[in-house]
Write a structure and sequence with these properties.
By secondary structure, this protein is α+β, with helices and mostly antiparallel strands. The chain has 3 helices and 9 strands.
Length: about 160
């Protein structure tokens, strides 16, 4: 391979998920997580976003209507990671999920970020996270990034709600 590198300003524009029940997925992503429904594409697809963008997440039942979740041990998407602007935003979503008794599959401190993990109604993995400022990312003696996975301090996270 040559030395080509994708531009550093590149970002992931959107993810498009196959779902089994469009209305149930809209209820989860919009009703629970707070995304906005931007438009429906016929009766089998919808586009949702944060902040009025055309779409961050596409949802469709074109090939998956009324289907069971994909097997966990087969190739496919591990999770969709949703980057929140602040730690307080993550705390607010944690509280919202708890208030709605929505189960988490995990919660972690990765050094560079703090994250909550859950499954959507079709068992697609969802990561809700915020990034610490780059200058706080853990590095070793030679300046190399040293991410880790530790238990998320939920009480510390929730303290963001009571400054």
């Amino acid at each position: 391979m040559d030395n080509y590198k994708i531009p550093s300003a590149t970002s992931i524009g959107h993810v498009h998920l196959k779902v089994s029940d469009l209305e149930r997925s809209i209820d989860f992503y919009c009703g629970l997580l707070g995304f906005e429904l931007m438009m429906r594409y016929g009766k089998d697809a919808a586009f949702i976003s944060a902040g009025g963008y055309h779409h961050h997440i596409g949802l469709n039942t074109w090939q998956s209507k009324n289907s069971p979740p994909a097997p966990r041990n087969s190739p496919g998407l591990f999770h969709t990671a949703i980057l929140l602007p602040t730690r307080k935003d993550l705390a607010l979503l944690f509280k919202r999920l708890a208030d709605h008794s929505y189960p988490l599959t995990g919660a972690a401190d990765h050094g560079v970020s703090e994250a909550l993990y859950l499954d959507d109604p079709d068992e697609n993995g969802v990561e809700l996270y915020w990034d610490r400022p780059r200058e706080l990312w853990p590095k070793d003696e030679s300046g190399e990034l040293t991410m880790y996975t530790r238990r998320l301090d939920i009480n510390s996270l929730l303290s963001e709600l009571n400054p």
